[in-house]
Amino acid sequence: MARRAFLLRWAKRILPLLGVALLLTIALWSEYAREEQRLRVGVRDLGLRPDAMSVLHPRYQGVDEKNRPFTVTAEVAVQGGEDDLLTLDAPRADIVLEDGGWVLLEARQGRYAKARSHLELDGAVTLYHDNGTMLTTERATIALAEGAARGDAPVAAQGPFGTLTGEGFRLSERGAVIEVTGRARAVLEADGPR
Q1: Phi, psi of 7 (to 5 degrees)
Q2: Quick one: which H or E segment has residue 72?
Q3: pTM higher than 0.85, yes or no?
Q4: What Cα–Cα distance (Å) separates residue 125 from each residue in 140, 151, 158, 176, 186?
Q5: How far apart are CA 181 and CA 52, in angstroms?
Q6: Residue 69 CB coordination number (10 Å)
Q7: Contact status, residue 63 vs residue 112, Cβ threshold 8 Å
Q8: Residue 72 contacts by C-beta under 8 Å, 6 or more apart in sequence?
Q9: What is the C-alpha to C-alpha distance for residues 129 and 105, in angstroms, rounded to an integer?
Q10: Distance between CA atoms of 112 and 77, rounded to whole angstroms?
Q11: pLDDT digit string, tens, across residues 102-127
Q12: Cα–Cα distance for residue pair 52/90, rounded to 1 Å
């Protein structure tokens, strides 16, 4: 009888504690499961693709057919399913000219095909030449190895020669020749004092 009384006293104390512990476990487990589900949804919403690789601040260097160097950089590069094609955020291309001068191209977005050294730029495309010429357009396609570029979006150029506007452009001979295509307008500056 003493033994039963002892077990009964302990059972009165332990069973309510076990009940509370069980309820807390169930409550915490359901909260943990909900938190895990929220985490899974958050990762899915990021739009990450397992077949794509992203690189911060990439730098690609190459040379053209005459061993003149060029460099392509960006804020972010994403390589998707195609091994050769990179999607670039804030791309920049530096091209060294034959006479030692340089050309800088930059835009908001672009695509770079490494094997062909082919760069397509979109959004606020700007070309700077070290002779003081600046050309702006919305789209341009650049063949880095050949030192050529073209675009079919409206273009504006300004430099020591004056200003040019047109419906498109072609650049050849690594920036030495710039041709404005379509309807064009030019305001030329005189070389000497007037």
Answers
A1: -65, -40
A2: strand 69-73
A3: no
A4: 7, 10, 14, 19, 20
A5: 38
A6: 11
A7: no
A8: 59, 60, 61, 62, 88, 91, 92, 93, 112, 119, 144
A9: 9
A10: 9
A11: 888 899 999 888 778 788 899 999 98
A12: 19
